[in-house]
Amino acid sequence: MSSPDAGLLVALVGNPNTGKSTLFNALTGLRQRVGNYPGVTVSRKSGTCDLGDGQKVELVDLPGLYSLAAASPDEQVVIDALSGNIAGDRRPDAVVMVVDATNLLRNLFLASQVAELGLPLVLVLNQADVAKEQGLRIDTELLSRRLGGVPVILTSAWKGEGIPEVRRGLAEALSRRTPMKRVVWPTDIAGALADVAQAASTDTGKAISAADAQRLLFDTNASTAERLGWTLERREKPVRSARERVRNSGYNPMAAEPLVHYAQLRVALDGVVAEGLGKAGRTAAVDRLLLHRVLGPVLFLGIMLGFFASVFWLAKFPMDWIQLGVDWTKGVVAPPLEPYPMLQSLVADGILGGVGAFLVFLPQILILFLFIGILEDSGYMARAAFIMDRLFSWCGLNGKSFVPMLSGFACAIPSLLSTRTIEDPKARLATAFVVPFMSCSARFPIYALMCAAFIGPLYGPGWESLVMVGMHCVGLVFAVPTAFVLTRLVLKVKPQPFVLELPRYQMPKPRDVVWRMWQNAAEFVSKAGTVIFAITIIVWALSYFPRDASVAERIRAEHPTESAEKVKARVQAAYVEQSYMGRFGKAIQPAFDPLGFDWKITVGVLASFPAREVIVSTLGVTYSVGEGAEADSQDLRKAMQDAKWTEGPRTGSPIFSLAAVLALMVFFALCSQCGPTIATLAQETGGWKWAAGSFVYMTTLAWIVSMAVYQFVIRLT
Amino acid sequence: MTPLSQLLPGQFGKLASLNPERGVDQRLMALGLLPGMVLKLIRKAPLGDPLAIEFCGQVVSLRLAEAENLIVDVSADCPIQRPRQP
Ligand SMILES: Nc1nc2c(ncn2[C@@H]2O[C@H](COP(=O)(O)OP(=O)(O)O)[C@@H](O)[C@H]2O)c(=O)[nH]1
Ligand SMILES: [Mg+2]
Fold first, then answer.
1. What's the whole-model pTM score?
2. Looking at this predicted complex, what is its ipTM?
3. How far is the alpha carbon of A16 from chain B, nearest alpha carbon, in Å?
């Protein structure tokens, strides 16, 4: 992880939304690397920063946090990173503390905690443009003196103002190694800290830093003690008596830290900020409208519908072009390969099919990321969470689950990545678990095919639309109880309180939003792309081999009078039937018999596990209408309408009865059939355990519900 | 002495006590909400929960159930120390 030429490591620390990432981009330019911290789903973004004098340092952008009393995994990473407790990572040599210039007091609390780590520090007061607009004048020299002489620099990261000064300040901090002035603890608290440090050091044989002693004394969570290997039975007594000592001096031990820090920061800030005449922000006024009792929800629905409709509408065109492009490429590369049928099929169906299946969703994914970025940067995301929280809190999720779940109706992958904005690890995991239930756009083709071929012709367009809408709700109906059970009974993680800052509204910067969209998409392509590609090739191979020439000869002999095209489709169907996939499908068809699926549907279901939209083209092959069948293909509809059972008790009756049609759609609504989703879920939940759990759960649930639907409807009709 | 959850939108109060053992209160303290601090209930969400409160020049949302343990004094002469609007 370390960069060889730099040697020095500098960490960016600060509250959420202060502009750390913006400053990081400004300082490093495009020389960035994105990785993951080991064992947790927190990404580690690092880059090389030039200090202006030829010296280069490695800069890491840490997650935002309000306090070092770590409660969430993101916060724990910051603490571990700052104290050098991350495997493969060094302890930083200096800290660039990014604070919001318009709210110095609150921001400096974290700075003051970080100061306890004793690292050289540069204080960056960002968003100077906003401070100026509000009429705030900040005496940076006075503040620097009050804080022990650390460089204090006023910047506007998004305008690029003050960036050279940050480089210079950092060089100065690294050479002079000035730490920030530390808090002065009242005598009894200082004594209690010394007691804890002494006891911990005796028990563990390790040197205990001042910062660690504070975490041991002040925090309810035990992560620091666990890291130091200080066991509960050994620490219980000394920690209790040290806290007693704090309590006897008049401080609640759990409140002492913020009380002491804030009291001293108020003194340090006295006279630093002069409030002149400025424009009152528009945030309060906009909130009066957007969070209005009646208008708020109406506007919210409007914004979300607009957001969602435009994802589909805007993505439609590039998706069509990509499809055309893939088909065109197939048309170009396939004919010259005619003499080598296996190679031709590998290229056309395997490779191009895989790349195509993956690429068509890219526009939707990009546009989703774009919209999520706009919602976040404008400040509306927090308001959406505020409005929706009540609807989600009862089942263990929170308001921040809303946008990932809504986006799930387009595509689960960006939605899973957007669950990162949920701080509460419990709600985050539960949201990630239910997102794949949302009816993503890859489910649309099978609903469309079934409704157009059966529901519409039999019951009229009214029912057809109703079933379409109903199918989009099936997943949601099962997702809510799933989240409820998961958060109440299964997940043993302690929930985090839902305390959410409602930041000021701001015009999103196109460059930032596009840049983030690009980074997310690149991460998706590199991670999920390889998985889906590999799975597609495997499925292709399973349905291509074995390929005995005698099969084709037999079919041609059996149907001497038919057109060449018809025969070709029959040959293809015959090959699939005796391929490994076909044999496997036939073998396990009895498992799907209670759902009313024949072996052809079963093969389609199996082939759709990597990517569910494959079902339509697979049915095209197994029902001998040739590949390239689409949801609106008349031939496929006809073939399916005419299909009858040829064996077993149902011989002679249509395969696609109303019961089977509904069962098939419900199965696709609930089943876990998307390789990239599973891969992304594994990545976002920090291991394959939850991904495997999701796969087993969704697939089992799909089978059970679909079976119930079939058995119920077949008895009614 | 009133629980924060019973404040009316627009009403100010001075924080009298909180429960530092609880996670929510620890979060709020980190954000600067300490006893003696003036806060204002700005509004409730359209469905009545959560609440948006303002203190130290920032607006923070918290759930009704979690606001019950925060006791505020509404009689104190608060508006003088009124936090600046962000
Ligand atoms: N007005 C203003 N906005 C900024 C500035 N720097 C960052 N922002 C915006 O503040 C928001 C949060 O920035 P980001 O870098 O993501 O913050 P982080 O959460 O600390 O990484 C984004 O909408 C930025 O565009 C600045 O100097 N001035
Ligand atoms: Mg950031």
1. 0.87
2. 0.92
3. 12
